[in-house]
Please model this.
Amino acid sequence: MSAIKISLNKILLYFRLRINLFFIVLSFLMFSSVFLQISGILVDVFKDLNLVSVIFILLLLPSYPIYFFIFKFENLNAVERLSLTIVTNLSIYILEGFIGHSLKIPLTPLFFLSITFFLFIILIGSTVIIQIKNKSLSSFIILQTDVDKERFYNDFSILKYIKDRLSLNGILLIIFILLFILSDFARGGYFIGFDPWLHISIIRSITETYQLPAGEYFGAMGLHIFSVVFQYFSGISAINIPRFSLFYTFPVSSLIVYCLLMRVFKNKNLAIFGVYILTFTSLGFSYLMYQYWPSGLTFIQGLMIFLLLFIRLQAFIKERPPSRKEIFTGIFKTYIPVILILISALITHSLMALIILISFVWIYLIYFCINVRRGFDFFLLLGLMGIFLLFYSLNISTGHLRVFDKFFSLPIQYIVSGLIAGASVILLSILYIRKDTKFTTGRYKLIIFGKKKKFYKTVEDRFFIPILIALVIIFTITFFIANFFVFNLNSYFIFVGFELALYIIIALWGFGVYRFKPRGKVLWLWAIILVFLIFAGLIFDVFTNTFHFYTRIFYISSVVIAIGFISYFQKLMKLGGRNETKSMILISLIVFFSLFASFIDISVSREIYTLKKREVSTIQWYSNYTNETNTIVGMNGWEHVFVYYNFPFDNLSYDLSFKQIHNFIPADNDLMHPENHVLSNGTNFLTEMKKDTEMEIYLLLSDNFLLTSGSSFFGQLTPEEIEHYYNLNYLNRIFSAKSENGEEMPIYWVI
Model:
């Protein structure tokens, strides 16, 4: 053993025994670094190092002392407490901004830093008081341990310690996620999607005015508050925040999902595999984390709430109903974080939070109907629904719910019929599930070995694989035909449809048996309500002539699909022998195909939904030379880019909403196809529109454009139509940006 390694191990043990004191001192140093940054004192050479301070504070402070110093959370392990700490801090920062705005306090960098520091000081002070009262301050500062110091000095290895804690698969998963995130930076260009341009515009507005533009984005400011805190503390510009957000959303969501899967399967490798497939497949989980959307943060908060409730529910679904003491033991350690997280989730995305909350209410309603004590937390969820109704009555961050205005515009007979049908399905489901639910153990093993309910074993051995192949082929052909006649998507999406069919069918079959486990029943109930909500959302979209609502519900379902998918392979591995071999072969084939399909999906999606530099330069040119309000016809979503470059953020005398800076009309088939410009009576409706609005009209020509209604997602111009634009005498091409391969992005002005 080298003297250097022994000396290093002595230092490590010294800090390990004083980890609590070291954390407190380090926290003060991190606060100091950020204070120097927001004060403009920090020199450039240290600004990159300040990112470490920002990450430390946003992830761990101020709530770390609650979960690691002050209270003992006996029902949570260290990783679960870390996850809860991170999500609690996220919620605290959102509530800081919301409360500060409500009290008319300017949302300056110093406001967020001082409030966070003040909360941390209170918690550390409470910790010291508690330790002194318990006469344990000395043991808190220097941990008591039975470690053999000499053996530790000679044998301890950091690499071995990391390998023992994480496992090789865990290390590979972390590397995979980091490479996935870094690939976004390597490709260059802008972030994916159009919505992020709106969100970074709101961030610019907050940092200029120090108040929330509550009239923008339906009043849901959670994402923007948290992003502003990150920008204030780090100094990173708003336009870079969407890409840096990946370093938060992917690791945090993966950590929570890992904790949930460990509770479900009690197997580290299966939990890691679950996180892995959610990260790279097209199930929707990665979409929520990859896109700079408020719904991604809300989903993280919803997963944390479900994890807390699931951990508590596990004690209530044992063979014997819980006693009164078991119900109330540690109740506030669950209820208070859940309420805090739910409130901040409503401020972030009320519609997503409501959908997630409804799914939880359904689960606990079932258990409440079976036995009041087993479903006692149903009262908590009723309280959370009460909080939502209070927010709705006060019109706090509930603008997303305007989507239901279309529902109430439907004929009354449709509404009544839908409500009766939905209520009937729910009532019948409750009656059946209540009768079918058992709390005895052992049924699952009897079923998978064919000793009980032999149907599942027979179908598994003889028919499942052929049925799976047949169903996937039928699904794929149906999807291909529907795509050809209705959706008009890129043919590569066929691979995605095939991939999703595989996962969903295997997940449903896996749940068919896994639901006979007491904890499997909980997840099966979650799957049932999400399927119901997806169909309800799809029907809603059909009747309102849109195809955008139900997809978000499907994204929420991704974790449940992954659990059902993994449960099938867990069953095969329990059976052993040929089944275990079949399991490994089938997993390998699906994973390789899924990687291929997901790679194609990401490539195509980036091409469609990512703005090119030439497209942005066109909008920048317009913004540089135009201040008056004009009518702009362009790709749906591009209006947010005009706001980012054209809105007078730095002029505090302006009291404008984002929509007032121009009159934006989303591109559609009538506006974009040149043969539709002139009506049958010879009237040119573009020139007539110019007269009627008394505004100049500018048309941004794009060969592909999103459609805001109808069953198709995209409209397209043929090369002949694009060429035809050059010869229209009522249009004047006033600007054109070209890429290296000659692709053009012009602006046309209606003469």
About this structure: The chain has a mean pLDDT of 88. Residues 578-609 form the longest helix (32 residues). The first strand starts at residue 631 and ends at 634.
